[in-house]
């Protein structure tokens, strides 16, 4: 059963790698603060377990149950994150802006890694008491555009997921689009190739129209 929240709004930003989620979260936070709202920004993984990224990197990429091992870590992190940060802030009447949530797990471990979606749904819903976001922004970026961005950034160190082949990133993208198509009232799909200013304005418009913020 979905847990009722006394107040507050939960807005999630989803998308593949290098889509610009952190930039748009920062801009939306500034916009909402200017309108008098109390804002909390957070992200996953790492919202509950600070060392989860290191634990993920230590997993054997050739392990036959890699997706399940990743899922266990993400669910553990998400449970702590929900109970210790997100839920209390929502009940305090704040707007929580989160970079990734349970929808990423469905896209990465489900659609891209091929894990049973029923298992992912069950564990994900249990971690957050059946709660859904009030609004989900999908910053949609083609896989080839991601490769161009990571090449331009010239990073010397990439995460396990950033280093996956283009076919993996294409599956992740499709996984997000499938979820958006299944729940069009909650999800807003935006072209992440457009400039940051236009993207920020589109996000502000959607927040005002859909949530009245």
Short description:
Phosphorylation of dTMP to form dTDP in both de novo and salvage pathways of dTTP synthesis. The chain is an alpha/beta fold. The chain contains eight helices and five strands, in the order βαβααβααβααβα.
Describe the structure.
- The chain is of the alpha/beta class and 213 residues long.
- The protein has a single domain, classed as P-loop containing nucleotide triphosphate hydrolases (Rossmann fold, 3-Layer(aba) Sandwich).
- The chain has eight helices and five strands; from the N terminus they run E-H-E-H-H-E-H-H-E-H-H-E-H.
- It has helices at residues 21-34, 52-58, 66-91, 102-112, 117-127, 143-153, 166-182, 196-211; strands spanning 9-14, 39-43, 95-99, 135-140, 187-191.
- A five-stranded parallel beta sheet has the order 2-3-1-4-5, sandwiched between helices.
- The radius of gyration is 17 Å and the shape is globular.
- One of its GO terms (cellular component) is cytosol.
- It comes from Candidatus Giovannonibacteria bacterium RIFCSPLOWO2_01_FULL_45_34.
Key attributes of the depicted protein:
53% helix, Rossmann fold, 213 residues, alpha/beta, five-stranded parallel sheet, 5 strands, single chain
Give the secondary structure arrangement, pairings included:
Elements: E1 9-14, H1 21-34, E2 39-43, H2 52-58, H3 66-91, E3 95-99, H4 102-112, H5 117-127, E4 135-140, H6 143-153, H7 166-182, E5 187-191, H8 196-211
Parallel strand pairs: 1-3, 1-4, 2-3, 4-5
Helix pairs in contact: 1-8, 3-4, 3-5, 4-5, 4-7, 6-7
Protein name: Thymidylate kinase
Keywords: ATP-binding, Kinase, Nucleotide biosynthesis, Nucleotide-binding, Transferase
GO cellular component, one term: cytosol
